[in-house]
């Protein structure tokens, strides 16, 4: 360890605080990206569910009327 760092302990404290702040910022951004991806998956799953329900309701209508278009 250099003498300058030993003489000035607040410099390493500031460096540590800066590192923690950077790590928290990175974690926040990663969580934000995961949240956006989760919302996308919800939207995609709901669209697939709606498409499946629309297809199955058409199949039921075809069976009842014996005519399908």
Verbal overview:
The chain crosses the membrane at residues 23-43. With 69 residues, the chain is mainly alpha-helical. It has one domain. It has helices spanning 3-7, 9-65. The longest helix has 57 residues, at 9-65. The model has no long low-confidence stretch (mean pLDDT 83).
Features:
single chain; 69 residues; mainly alpha; 90% helix; 0% strand; rod-shaped
Total domain count = 1
Structural class label:
mainly alpha
> Could you describe the largest sheet, including whether it forms a barrel?
none
Radius of gyration: 29 Å
> Looking at the structure, what is the overall shape?
rod-shaped
Mean pLDDT equals 83
Helix content, binned percent: over 70%
End-to-end Cα distance:
82 Å
Q: What is the chain-wise order of helices and strands?
A: HH
Give the number of helices: 2
Query: Hey, roughly how much beta strand do the residues contain?
Result: under 5%
Number of DSSP strands? 0
Oligomer: single chain
Task: Summarize, please.
With 69 residues, this protein is an all-alpha fold.
How are the elements arranged and paired?
Elements: H1 3-7, H2 9-65
